Request: fold
Amino acid sequence: MRIRPVKIDTFRENIIFLRKDSEFCRTQGVSSLTKVELSYNGKTLVGLLNAVDEPFLAKGEVGLCEYAFEKFDLPAGTEVKIRHMDPVRSVDLVRKKIHGEILDEDDYLQIIKDVVENRYSKVELTAFVVACAQGPMERDEVVYLAKAMVDVGDKIKWDSEMVVDKHCIGGIPGNRTTMIVVPIVAAYGLIIPKTSSRSITSPAGTADTMDVLCNVNVKLEEMKSIVAKEKGCLVWGGAFSLAPADDIIISVERPLSIDAQGQMVASILSKKKAAGSTHILIDIPVGKSAKVTSPLQASQLKKLFEYVASKMGLFVDVIITDGSEPIGNGIGPLLEVIDVMKVLKMENDAPKDLLEKGVELAGRIIEFDPKVKGGEGRAIAEGILKSGKAYEKMLSIIEAQGKKPEKKLGKLTLEVTSHKNGRIVEFDNKKIATCAKLAGAPEDQGAGIYILKKIGEKVKKDEPYMIIYAEEQADFDYAKEYLEKHREMVVIE
Reply:
């Protein structure tokens, strides 16, 4: 049958479309949700069949969703063979995990291989994710899962004994410290090839924010060339096949709001190992509305990171930070860029919390260098920032990746004012992020929220404490409606 792309976004799931009156459907007795395999000269693609009545496919055609067509990487019209998929044996291992059994290293490798080859339906994948989350996983199982995720995918090798990186476990709006840390560390001279994610449910990921300034979708060889010249980069990790099982598993975790510690640690460390990192700084924000809500939970997570990293040959430094409120003022791609550039240029109105945290994290990474004594890194990082070298390095990285034209903030604005005199005492990070996303971020780069007052600051009656930006009227209305229902996202007393 001839393949044809079908412009339907199935969110990282291979969906294959066939007419109900096709010879394969009629003679094989297959129906929707049957798993089938397409093959061409040794290349295979496994997907879930959707039988269709509407004649958007000609006879002899098989339709591939956008994701599957990109994965198969064959021209439209290519003749392929189609057959029933063989039973997935590793699903039996998932059943064992559901019943509370402990899986070994080979078990996880088999499961992850089948996941990456898209042999799992969303139902089977969800069963695996939930089974691992409800356990919880033994710490050695986390090691096995992380190693399997590294083994089933590409790996980057660098010509350096030390390759540094940082990762925040997320959950805090703004918090664009990576764009402060990378130019400081690169200007110091350590190699920091930063691959970052795009947003799935947040107002912006680091890749979304950097995408305002320059191209982040670069090929591997281009990335290596940039790093060879600049010592660092800020690119989208999705452009490479590094620990590809992670992105597939996340596609199930996010809609279910599952963020189990074991899976999170395996996810983060597998990506870092595959990207060739040797020394990693992990940032765990703690706060009432953060992912980690208590110091005890943070301490347990810290120990798990350290154990799994040691088994994978990685050195990690885990830092526990304040996650009680957004970091910086901007929430949304362009608003976060404004914050970052103010810090790098050391402007008087640069957000102090973003500056302080960026310098602290950069200093900890600089202390990975054996020549730097403990406690000296912060002063070095601050010196690089004040000298203007970090700003110059950021401009060089932007030019190397491909500078983009300047963007504008959303034309629709709403000043959110206080209903009384008082102080800001609490932010609900999740609700602030939701409101910014409803305003259009990150799809509209100029949309989001700008925070004017932080915890502890006084606010007068009718004085604005944040501004909502939107580009489209519908998004603007959604954000306003959400704000009216959830005024408690900012508590004033």
About this structure: The first strand starts at residue 2 and ends at 6. The domain at 412-492 is CATH 3.90.1170.30 (Aldehyde Oxidoreductase; domain 3). The chain has three domains: 2-84, 164-236+259-401, 412-492. Residues 295-311 form the longest helix (17 residues).
